[in-house]
Amino acid sequence: MNFVPLALYAAAFVAYGWHFARRAPAVGRSATTILVAAVLAHTFVIGMETMESGQVPVGDATSAISMFVWLLAVSYLYTEVTTDERAMGVFILPLLVALQAIPAFRPADVVRASLLRGPLFGIHVSSLLLAYASFALACVIGITYVLLFKEIKAKHLGFFYARLPSLQVLDKMNQRAIVFGWIFLTVGILAGAAFAFQTRALPGSADVPQVQAMSLADPKIMAALVCWAVYSFELFAARRIGWGGRRAAYLSAVGFAIVLLNFVPISYFFTKSHNF
Question: Which residues form the domain of 125?
Answer without folding.
Answer: 115-276
